[in-house]
Amino acid sequence: MDEGTPLDRQWEATIVDHLSRAVSELLHGSRSKADAILQEVSVRGPERAKRKGVPLTTQLEVFRRDSFTCRYCSQRTLFLPTVRVLSAAFPEHLPVDPGWKLDHTHPVYWTLIASADHVVPAIRGGDSSEDNLVTSCWRCNDIKRAWSLQELRWTLLEPPEQSSWDGLSGDYPQLCAATTDAEGQPVSEVSYHRGWLRAFSTLDAQSPEQH
Question: What are the phi and psi torsion angles at 69 (to 5°)?
């Protein structure tokens, strides 16, 4: 295999090869050989456990540090609260279910939303410091879950240099103040947005020259 092939692509080729061989062995009546082949790619994830949420200010700092770019796939991501403002104003165009049910939620929520992901999963001892948190698109976050980068054969990418992309977060406070939902209620009065607006105020008060 080409040495320049990314590790995750090498892993995918290995998995396909091993599963194909296992199928062949089963068809030839050799369950033991199929078992031995699959042992070579066997991975068992840890049990999931409840953990404390990452403070909103920390999440925002991580997103800004990474220029709202996924550190696993380099996809530009979107700031969830901004998208939720748009959904509140235009639910017919950007529907979102309270429980994010797939058939009632716009695909953008399941793909491009920014999330603060633990590189070393919390269940495996990873903390919620900025050193262990990176921006991840929702798609990558959903795949990674409690797996390690080594198990997934993923590589942690460096943040983009001199990127001005902010995930549409820069206009968020002003957007909240100027927008009402489909029923006419000011978005800024919704508790979810009040929490994020406080996070913006806290960080911007600490670093007014940056934002």
Answer: -120, 130
Q: Based on the fold, state whether residues 151 and 177 are members of the same structural domain.
A: yes
* Nearest CA-CA partner of 182 in 103, 119, 90, 104: 90
Based on the fold, state whether residues 67 and 26 are members of the same structural domain. Answer: no
Same domain, 24 and 83: no
- In tens, the pLDDT along 8-23 reads 566 677 888 888 998 9
CA distance linking residue 209 with residue 192, whole number of Å? 26
Q: Which long-range contacts (CB under 8 A, 24 or more apart) does 55-58 make?
A: 55/128, 55/199, 56/195, 56/196, 56/198, 56/199, 57/199, 57/202, 57/203, 58/116, 58/128, 58/130, 58/133
Show the tokens assigned to 129: 């410091």
Q: pLDDT tens for residues 110-122? A: 999 999 999 999 8
DSSP code per residue over 120-173? S-GGGT---SGGGEEEEEHHHHHHHTT--HHHHT--PPPPPTT----TT-TTHH
- Answer yes or no: is 48 within a domain: no
